[in-house]
Amino acid sequence: MRVGIIGGTGFVGGYLVDALLANGHEVNVLVRPGSEHKVRQPARVNVVTGDLDSTAALSAVLKGCDAAIYNVGLLREFPRRGITFEQTQYQGVVDTVSAARQAGVQRLLLMSAIGVKDPGTKYQATKCRAEIHALHSGLDVTVLRPSVIFGDPRGTMEFATQLFQDMIKPPLPAVAFPGVRMSPVHIKDVADAFCASLQDDSTFGQTIELAGPETLDWREIVQRVAAAAGKSKLILPMHLWVMRIGATLFDWLPFYPVTRDQLTMLEEGNTGTADAVKSLIGREAQPFTPESLRYLKC
């Protein structure tokens, strides 16, 4: 099967490329101009250079494909630079669905996230609207909603590495946010779940949550990241309303580390069970432990 990936050069996209190739698929990847060096296994991948809002580029990446994967998302938007949730997480899906129809591509996998909803934050609402549009498009669509994803970033950035950089590495106490809970899921389990669902007719029209085997509170997550990095760290509680005051004043600044919407989603949590992962990939999901986080070891 030839698969066209929109969003194949980042943390998750690189693992999707590897998993698809390992399972015998052929891969087309849409790449922004100047990012060609980020493509995994470039000798085995058909690279299409172009922008997400280019009809010609979307048509080219889906040409000759049997399936498409939409894996584009933002953690934060920058409207002044034209980088928005609306354009990236919603309109990009609308345009991809249109391009798939024109190319005769019937199968579409859509990367979403646990907890998306409308109304909600801009992040949640645009992803939710994208899900609805895709599921009602007439294509054979599967929506996959992972919890927070961890694993060796291989030169990019992911959840545990960011947490290490922000809280464990600095010579200051780390903070724990009371009430915040997540079910971290390993990137290889996510990539394999995509591959498994690709040709599984029973997943057509389904929205599937991908979560790890444990639901952890923020303190437990920080403790495990510190242990994996071989660090001893004092952890102090901090309620999210304290962070919200700062975000209210400063989240319009690009360098401010967190936005009000991100704090809202953090407070809501990001949890699920590993049942779907196990069913799709045929093995137990990897836990968020110091052993599976050993890539953080200094």
Describe the structure.
There is one protein chain. Helices cover 38% and strands 17% of the residues. With 298 residues, the protein is an alpha/beta fold. The strands form 4 sheets. The chain has a 7-stranded parallel beta sheet with strand order 3-2-1-4-5-6-11, with helices on both faces. It has a two-stranded parallel sheet with strand order 7-10. Strands 8-13 form a two-stranded parallel ribbon. α1 (11-22) packs across α6. The longest helix has 19 residues, at 85-103.
Describe the structure using short key phrases.
Rossmann fold; single chain; 10 helices; 38% helix; 17% strand; 7-stranded parallel sheet; 298 residues; globular
Give the structure's gist in a few sentences:
This protein is α/β, with parallel strands linked by helices. The chain contains ten helices and 13 strands. It has helices spanning 11-22, 55-62, 85-103, 122-135, 159-168, 187-198, 218-228, 240-250, 260-268, 275-281, and strands spanning 2-6, 26-31, 45-49, 67-70, 107-111, 140-146, 149-150, 174-176, 181-182, 185-186, 206-210, 216-217, 235-237.
- Could you describe the largest sheet, including whether it forms a barrel? 7 strands, parallel
Strand content: 15-25%
The H/E string reads EHEEHEHEHEEHEEEHEEHEHHH
Summing up helix and strand content along with how strands pair, one would put the structural category as alpha/beta
Spatial strand arrangement across the major sheet: 3-2-1-4-5-6-11
